[in-house]
Amino acid sequence: MPVINIDPDELIALSGIPDIDEALDLISTIGAGDLERGADGGLEIEFFPNRPDLYSVEGLARALRTYRTEALTEYDVTRGEIVLTVDSSVDDVRPFISGGVVRGVKVSEELILSMMNLQEKLHLTVGRGRAKVAIGLHDLAKVTPPFIYKAVEPGSISFVPLGGSRPLDLGEILTEHEKGQDYAHLMEGHSHYPIILDANDDVLSFPPVINGTLTTVTTETRDIFIDCTGTDLETVQGVVRNIATALAERGGTIESIDVVHGQGFTAPDLARRRTRVDMDYVRRTIGLDGDGASEQVLTALARTDMQASVEDGEIVVDHPAYRMDIMHPVDLVEEVAIGIGYRNLSGLLPGSVTFGSIRPETEAEETFRGIMTGLGFLEVKSLLLTDPRAESERMNRSGEERDLWWDSPSVLVANPKTSEHSVLRTTLIPSLFGMIHLNKHHPLPQKVFEVGHALPTSEKELRGALLWTDAKAGFSGVKGIAELLWTEVHPGATIEEADEPTFIGGRAAYIVVDGERVGIFGEVHPSVLSSWELTHPVVCLEMRL
Predict the structure, then answer these.
(1) What is the tens place of the pLDDT at every residue in 311-358?
(2) Domain 360-544 has CATH 3.50.50.60
(3) What DSSP string describes 407-441?
C-alpha cells in the first residue's frame, strides 16, 4: 500500500486542526493503515489503494477538516480560454488526454515536494506504472496556448528533457535519458510517439516519459498547467480532478480548458456525482438500528464530504468529483461506517450456530508437511514465476511433450521484467533444483521440500514436492518415502513404471489413484544433474495434494 510522508506542521496549517494528537486520531478513523513517526519528526502514513485523494498532505487535510466540521468542500471552476487540440495520430498510441489550469498558487519548496510525491504515488497505483495514466505539471507562463497533443516520428522533434543538459530527440531520450530508459517499454511497437506542443512548437511533455525542462515548476511559478494522458478517459479525468483540487487547497483558483477531440469536453469537471443506495441495505450491512438510523447515516456521510438526503427509502448521495473510488453502493456503505467510526459500531452475534472444519486440501498439505519435517527435510518456498528453460531444457525435456504427468503448456507473462520470471510454473521440481543449485557449495546431504501451487492447466493445483541429493540417494530410498506419503495422502494408490526423460530409465514411477496419475518419483538422469551443475545423485518426488 502507498506510504505518504507528511509534515505535521503543514497538516495542521492546511486542516485547521490545532492539536496534532487530534489529527492523528482522525487519520486512523478515516481509514489509514500503519502510522509511524519518521526520524525527522515527519509522519509516515500507509493508505489503502482505493483512496488516491489521500495521497497528499492537501487531500488528507481536506478529509480531516471535513470529518471534523461536517462542512462540504466545494470548488469553483472559472471558465478559461485555453484550448487543447487532440490530433487523431495519437489514437493508436495513447488516445486520451485531459487537463486544467490552477492560477494564483504560491509555490513553495514544500508544495513542489508534495506534488512530486503525489504524482509518484498516482503513477504507481492508479497509473499502473504510467502505462494507464501519466501526469505532467507545467509553469504556464513559460509557454503559449493553444496546445496540441499529437504523435510524431521519434527523430522529428528535439527538446531538453527534465533533468537533462542538451536537446535530445524522442528516440534518444528513450536510450540515453534515465527516465527514458525506465519507460521505453511503453513505446514498444509504436512508430510514432505522443508529444504536447504549444503555439510556438515548444515542447511541454513527451508523455508518458518525461516533461521538458522549459516548463519546470519553481518557487517563481504562479499559474500551473496540468496535463494527464492515458488509455482510459475516466481515469485520466479523475486524476486531473485529484491534482487540481489538491492545488486549490493551497489557495489556487481552478480554471477550465477546452479539450477538442471528437465531441470534445471541458475539464476539469468538478460537479458532484450522484449515486443512490437503499437505506435497508446500509442498515443490514453495518448493523444499524432502525430508530434514528436515517439521521445517523446523513451525518456520517457529511463527515466524508458527501451531500445526502433520503427519498422513498433511498439515500441520494452527491459525492465529490475528486473521489475516484465511489463505484458501487457498497462504497457508500463504507463511507457511512467511516463517518460513524468503526470503533462505534456494535457487533452482532450470528443468527445460527456454525462450526469450522479443516478443508481436505489443508489436511493433506499439513500431512505432507508433517511427514517431510519428520524425515528431516527442510521446507523451502519459491516463486510461482519461473524460467521456461528450467521446465524444459534443464529437465532434459524438449518442451513439446504435452501428455505426460508434469509437462504442459506454460502460461506466459505478458511483460516480464526478466526471462527468468516469464512463465507460471507447471511443476514444483525445477524450483527445488534451482534452490539446490544455489546451495551446491554446502555439505551433503541436502533434503528439501515445498508445498505450493503449480498451473499444469488453466487452474492452479496444490502440490507437494521433495528433492534429496546425497552420495547414497537412490530409487529405493525415494520409493520408501513415496509409500509413506501415498498411504497418508492418497490411500489405495498404486505405482506404475514411468518413462520420463528427466529420470533414469527403469528408476521412475507414477503414483496412480483410480487410473489417474497423481504423482511421480524417481532417480534423476545424469544429464539433468549436469544442466544444474550438480555432481551427486538426486532423487525427487511430486504429488497432488
Answers:
(1) 988 999 999 999 999 999 999 999 999 999 888 887 767 778 888 888
(2) no
(3) --PPEEPSS-SSGGGSEE-S-SHHHHHHHHHHTTT
Angle at 235 between CA 232 and CA 239, to 5 degrees: 135
Per-residue cell: 421: 520470471
pTM of the model: 0.68
Q: How far apart are CA 413 and CA 33, in angstroms?
A: 31
Q: Which residue has the cell 469553483?
A: 76
Q: Selecting from 3.30.420.40, 1.10.1660.10, 3.40.50.10490, 3.50.40.10, what CATH number does the domain 77-267 have?
A: 3.50.40.10
Q: Which of 145, 354, 323, 114 is nearest to 239 (CA)?
A: 323
What backbone phi and psi angles, to 5 degrees, belong to 537?
A: -55, 150
Rounded Cα gap, residues 481 and 403, in angstroms: 26
Summary mean pLDDT of the chain:
91
Which residues, 6 or more positions from 24, have their beta carbon under 8 angstroms from its beta carbon?
35, 43
Options 3.40.50.620, 1.20.120.350, 3.20.20.60, 3.30.56.10; CATH for 3-68 is 3.30.56.10
pLDDT tens figures, 351-389: 788 888 888 889 999 999 999 999 999 999 998 888 888
Distances, alpha carbon 122 to alpha carbons 4, 53, 95, 269, 285, in Å: 11, 10, 19, 19, 31
- What crossing angle do the helices spanning 475-489 and 360-374 adopt, rounded to 10°? 150
Nearest in space to 391 (alpha carbons), one of 531, 241, 191, 522: 531
Greater confidence (482 vs 420) lies with 482
CATH topology for 273-342 is Phenylalanyl-tRNA Synthetase; Chain B, domain 1 (3.30.56)
Nearest-angstrom CA–CA distance, 408 and 404: 8
